[in-house]
Amino acid sequence: MPDRQIQLLTAAIIGLFLISGSATAAQRWYHVELMVFSNNNASTTEQWDATPPLAYPERFRFLLDSSQLNTAGTRPTPFVKLPRRGSAFYNKAAYMDRVGGYRILFHENWVQPVREEANALPLVLDRSGDTGKWPLLQGSVKLYLSRYLHLETNLWLNTRGDYLPGTWQMPAPPLGPASIVIEEPEPIGPQPQESMPQSGAAMDGTDPGSENLVAGFEQETAKPVYPYRHAILLKQHRRMRSKEVHYIDHPILGLVIKISPLTEEDLETMALQEKM
Fold first, then answer.
1. Digits of tens for pLDDT over the chain (276 positions)?
2. CB distance 126 to 194 below 8 Å
3. CA quadruple 197, 201, 207, 212: dihedral positive or negative?
4. Number of other CB atoms surrounding residue 92 within 10 Å
5. What are the Cα distances from residue 118, in Å, to 146, 177, 212?
6. How far are the Cα atoms of 44, 100, 234, 243, 252 from residue 249, in angstroms, in the given order?
7. HSE (CB half, 13 Å, CA atoms) of 122?
8. How far apart are CA 243 and CA 164, in angstroms?
């Protein structure tokens, strides 16, 4: 074979290995356990931002329930909540509940591929977009892989604002995105025409019950009232090491996370367990 063809073939083989290696790196799977809690006994003189920049990402995802398993593949279903019992933080969370002073705001564990930053979607932790109510904890976290594992937090704690003077209240933070979007089907066929006024209607075109209808409409369309005075933001970026427990310290909020790599054997075993 001519030297030129050998060089081209060698370059092609090296290119395939590089592409394969990049794809493998982009598909590294991890088991993630995350716990977020508040310190109810914290006393701090720190000055919090009066109107912190609170926002949800434009692109995002949510954790799934076990009813949403996809048992057709050779990989476990990513982002499905796994049982807490037996997890690394299970006993710690139970202890914190017993001793008091702390409130567990979020505690879940799941498996997922961790991708490069450009393709990693933030995980929204609250369902306020479904309930229409502000929970204590709102926001999102983002895991991604470059040379190291990285965690970005965009979380905030809604508080009664006892540390604020007077009765000032910050503007309401945004509610989260909806986790389920329901689209109403388009009506098919002829629609019923508007009915004629009933005999009880007044001759000037008003209905004796119209005031009640208007009042009911205003009540239904009224915006929910923000039941808190202030929100404290936890926005940080940390480099992670796999298999280690990482703690993000904060005067009011605490975050503990452990990210453990999964082998091919681990993934195959978990996928088989989902099928059982």
1. 555 444 433 343 333 333 333 344 447 999 999 999 998 877 667 889 999 999 999 999 999 998 888 888 889 999 999 999 999 999 999 999 888 889 999 999 999 999 999 999 999 999 999 999 999 999 999 999 998 999 999 999 999 998 898 999 999 999 999 997 554 555 554 555 544 444 433 334 344 444 454 444 445 557 789 999 999 999 999 999 999 999 998 899 999 999 999 999 999 999 999 988
2. no
3. negative
4. 16
5. 10, 21, 53
6. 13, 19, 10, 19, 9
7. 19
8. 40
As a whole number of angstroms, the distance between CA 81 and CA 266 comes to 17
How many Cβ atoms are within 10 Å of 21's Cβ, its own excluded? 10
Going by C-beta distance under 8 Å and a sequence separation of 6 or more, which residues neighbour residue 119? 26
Helix or strand or coil: residue 91? helix
CB 267 within 8 A of CB 76: yes
Token digits of residue 276 = 């059982």
- The closest of 120, 153, 128 to 35, measured between CA atoms, is 153
Instruction: Give the C-alpha separation, 233 to 144, whole Å.
Output: 21
End-to-end CA distance of the chain: 54
Six-digit token pair at 26? Answer: 């982009």
Task: List for the chain the helix, strand, coil content (%; round to 5).
Answer: 25, 25, 50
Tokens of residue 65, six digits: 């329930």
Residue with token string 């369902």: 127
Q: DSSP letters along 177-207, please? A: PPSS--PPPPP-SPPPPPPPPPTTS-TTS--
* DSSP of 204-232: TS--TTHHHHHHHHHHHHPPPPP--SEEE
